[in-house]
## 1
Amino acid sequence: MKALTIGGATNDFIAIIEDDLIERMTMHNATSSFLLFEEGRKVDATSIEAFVGGGATNAAVAMSRLGFDAAAIVKIGNDHAGDKIVETFHNEGVDDKFVIRSDKDATGRAVMVSSHVKNPTIFVCRGANTRLREDEITPEHFKSMDLIYITGLSGDSSAAFPHIVSLAKQSGAKIAANPGIRQLSSRSQDFYKSLELIDILSLNEAETAQLVPLIIKDHKKAKLVEVSPKSKGGDEEVTMPELVRNGLSAGGFNMSLGDFFATILHLGIETFVLTNGKEGAYIGNKDGVYFCNSNKVDVKGTAGAGDAFFSTFTSLLTDGASIEDATHAATINSSNVVACIDTQSGLLKRNELKGRLKAFSTKNCRNYKFV
């Protein structure tokens, strides 16, 4: 299978700080937490390391390690940071023939500060990632591709999203999209108009909620009813998944999870993937919604977990795997990524993933149907 990823590429610099050197403050009336740095103080780091990251790069590396023929369209600078991205593609077997180099903009860079719960604060200078233009994407890029995988397009690059989706649709490839929350908020109408052209869409809980006010006018009533026997956790029933229980809210609008899935699928999406961090993921199609809880691991860093999950799920599903098998594999791969500090070291090769699938527990997974 041939796959093309489109989106961001960065050099990531990750600093690990001991908990007692940075104060953490959690709000009692909100879900936000903050890391507090003392002004003017030099803070000792346990380690500071450099890696290659970015949504399109992470996805391409994941697909290549799974045995697929992967290429990537990313825009980078004519600089050392750009050389590191091309070097990573060479080392990982990712085709770099579509990499675009800019003389005007630097390669994107990110600085991550990780402490306490290992959910890093990320400082981003997106650089050339914001400068992808429509005229740089042509039908030639999509020839013979089986999967077009579009990650978050930042800054001015987001204006090219409708053009990219349109060309991808004309190619006959399966189209998957994983836009970021800034793209959804700044160009929501462009995104909304492209929904009917997208086959597989993935958003996290916050990004999904961002769509609630937009799609409420197309509200399609539906409830989710569990169709699999209730599994047991010890002597007690497994708790109902959070979003099935609470639904989604944004901008004063509320939707049940069943209503949201029914509506987004009615608007043209074939498969919708909703990831909810450490709780797990919800996968919906015309047959209903499948919930798979996350693996419990010693978290070293959360960056790249979403990229690992969706790229694994999408590539395996496109290659013929069932919803359940693709979801289980994606859960394993993403949990292996968060067990590492960077976004790519934990990505598994196909044989490793197959071995871990044999031991994967589905006792807390649930099937729901629409009524």
## 2
Amino acid sequence: MDKNAALRALAALGQDTRLEVFRLLVRAGADGVPAGEVAARLGTVQNTMSAHLKVLDHAGLVRAEREGRTIRYVADMTGFRDLLAYLMEDCCNGAPELCQPAIQAVTCKC
């Protein structure tokens, strides 16, 4: 990931509704959530939610999957991983043991 892509992802997540959308999609896992249901769950009108989803998609944090007339959104875990890797690229100045608390905090405990 380059600096501009990281900035797009961070800017996308830096807005309250988009952060909630991303967290909702992460919780949903590989099944994702239909766009209309995302809007309903978060109490947002559909056209506003569509704009938020487009920003997250452009930032590489979600992807749309068409199912007939329905568009299902899924968290793009590769994009999220790339963002985390970019942020931690120069972590700890050659002392990786200092990064362990951060790595443990993002490790899935499922």
